[in-house]
Amino acid sequence: MDIEEVNARSASDDVLARFHALELACHEELSPGQPPRSVEEVLAFHRHLPETQTSCHWLADGGMAALYVHGPTATFLDLLVEPGRRRRGLGTALLERALARCRVLGVEGLRSVHSTAAGAAFAASAGAADEQRIVRSHLDLRAAELPEPNLPDGFRLVTWLGRVPGEDLEAYVTARTAMDDAPAPDGMDFPAWTAEKIRASEESLAQRDREMRLTVAMNADGEIASFTELRVSRGSTLGFTDDTGTVGAQRGKGLARAVKLESLRRLRADHPEVDVVVTSNAEENGVMRHLNESIGFLPSVVGTLAVIDLGRPTQTDGNPR
After folding, report:
1. Alpha-carbon distance 317 to 103, whole Å?
2. DSSP letter, residue 61
3. Rounded CA gap, 39 and 120, in Å?
4. I need a surface site. Which of 6, 49, 91, 235 has the fewest CB within 10 A?
5. In contact, 228 and 176? CB cutoff 8 Å
6. What's the whole-number average pLDDT of the chain?
């Protein structure tokens, strides 16, 4: 079978549109109750990934694979095969391409999410071990009751669009360490966020015509105690909540609820066209799931993160350890 590696940053619109067609073919399995991404969103997503991130893409007649490398143990694969093309070895062939590249790049664990019986069977046949269950939830933004947030004394809420102000960037880098103890599989370590990575993410989102909406709770000294990020593409009816975190010493004060309410209220005011907001949480993260459900998020699909252990490379492929 013919599998073509694609340079997504320079590929034509017609080539990248094939990724969109495959998403549509698998949409009801992957994202029930969620509006599909437009072709423009898919083109922009693949073409403008952050420069600090390694990514690889493969296309075949009826299937695709996309590899996202954040670090040796934080590497993720999207693999889609049209329902009518399955059980013919295409998924296995695409996975083999991705695994070969992982070995060249010194990846130690390749992870992906399955949310159907067929996906679970494929992962098991590939030797993947199930790890963490991920709950995706949806909020009907137009109908949601979003009271004005309450803040403890000494804090204020600020929302930044598109870019963290330079004078607050260091404080935000520090605040992002709040995610370090978020539930995660054993052995999966994301590289720490840096100012460079934050700026690269902002630039990537701007190139995708995707608005970053970052709401933070700050104290009088300019320290960020809690934050939440929303993202929405121009003209889309779907918003997506990225990370929400509260610095350890500031937990238990209601700051996470305050930033989430403020973020959603501002999104509804600024973008009345948005119908649905999506968020994802580890199943065992009871605190955040309870907070989201108390705001009005309803679970819609549960995925399972599975990992193929590639081991620690020795001195092969130019990657000495």
Report:
1. 8
2. T
3. 28
4. 235
5. no
6. 94
